[in-house]
Amino acid sequence: SPLTQQARRVLFFGWVHEILLELTSHVHGGASHWVLLTLSAAACGGSNLAAMGAVRSRVALIEHTFKDRLGSRTLVVAQIAAAGPQMVTGTMAASIATRACITGSDSGWTRFLQGILASDWYWVTCCVTWILAWASATFIAAWSFSVVSSAAQTPMAARAGSYVHAEAVWARSVIRRSRGVIVFACACCAVMNAVRLGLTVCHMLGLIQDTAMLLIILELNRSVYMFVEFIFLLMIIGYFRPRRPDAWAPALQRSISTASCRTPTPKPTPRSSTWHDKVRELAERNVTVDELLSFYSQLGQGDVMPHYDPHHHTTNDVVRGAIIPLSRLPSGGGAAYASTLPWRTVSTQLPERMVTHDWRNLFLHLVAAVVANALGECEYSRVADTLVRSGVASLRRKLAKMGALHIHYWICAFCVNQHANICGGFGSPPPEGTPDYVRWDANRRDSVSGKLHIACPCHERKFFNDSTDKCELNKFDDMMALLLEEQPNFCQVAAVDRHFNIFTRVWCIAEFVQAYLTEVPQSICTLSNKALDADNEDLSIYVKLATLTVLECSASRPEDKALILAKIPDVAEFDARLQAMIFGERGLLSKHLVGFDLLGAA
Hints:
Largest sheet: 5 strands, mixed
Shape: elongated
Radius of gyration: 32 Å
Strand order of the largest sheet: 1-3-2-4-5
Structural class: mainly alpha
Number of strands: 5
Strand content: under 5%
Mean pLDDT: 80
Order of helices and strands: HHHHHHHHHEHHHEHHHEHHHEHEHHHH
Number of helices: 23
Low-confidence stretches: 247-266
């Protein structure tokens, strides 16, 4: 991660500086001495630059999330001051080394520079600069973290013992511990340089006559400094951290049970045999990777969505323009696309993986995410490029070589009978002028032409929420439970769109949290992990995910959102579980949001 790389840079430069400094002490005079001194100064400057940068990045992070200026700009000046003296020293040493290498003798200018470097006053000035830099960093870090820590309060709706309460306590603990670690490390750097300043002044005043003793004390001082810096880096990147609350801790599980008891919820409706038959029928539908690629290769060919544009058409467009027409039956009815595949009338193969995705994402990206997942990859940009440039042949060969061509996936666009619900229309329009209306209107139009999608003329009977037993849109929880019980290799795959809008769709959130709470293995496939890298200095994705609430998630049909919200006894607790599902110890993005570390999560 960027934080680990930052720590590596500090340690690398620090230890290189120590080695070069030791070599310099054994090489007296000549070009070699000044070359080693140049490299040693550069390494020391790099170490200070990276160490101060680690402090500045933490302050910048809390400054961004707190939406107030807390001193990160001042730390830029401190960062320059912390590395400046070594850069000046290195420049002078390099000038002396260059002159020595070219002419082999000293000049008036090089003797002048050597006099500066040998002067106690020069090192007094350097020490004062370092002290001011680290003292200002100590003050800014203490003040900024104190502001955030004092503002961190337990949510009013959080009950003692609930997951929300546990998360709030954990977050405050992390912020306070981070403040202690950073302030202590910066203060130690200031103190170490103050000790060095004191020793230099004592030597100037003749209070320390024994040069060997002075060098020993300076070496001890530098060794302590390196040790403190090492421990500081371990703690700042997350070692010795308070463990984040586990949503599956027994105490928190009891809390959820208690919350459910306190909140009046409708008693579960006894399920009929028709309901269970429909759940099993849904669970037995699937498409293989090979079949998905065959379908994709048809798009834009002949009569199958001839205007298909992989760079603009969404899954919603492909469902309306290809999947629904291809799954219409000669009898005048319709079936799920997966059920129309030749051998599916007799197969009872259960899918190994269930794909959760946003219909507003490009269909190209859905196919690429599934293929990338089958190949064991967590990014699908390369696969998407291959699909556009070369088609499916090379990917088929690679999948066949890996034995992944016939992995069975459950994808709602193919496995739900669209003719039994949405094919004949677009639902009731929301009030005009609202964001819901904009989304509804976009969903009923082709993303390229802007024309209305053609309604399917089939005679298949439609079943929505008012026909609970035969409806296919209200059984995902039961279907996931059946697959988890009967398919030993069952897991959930999140095909994340480029804007991460999947985490704002209420159906997707419901599937994610259901899988998380029932301990279904979850994996994620993104277009590119660069969007999750803190080095981008763009926290928009992180802030978007960190402020999610199920109340603000959207659905194509208002009744779907109402149905899901009705199942949630405690919204605050559900939102906390949602955060755990995304950022927690075993969350979807626990290994992907590497740039946003422990402090960022808090």
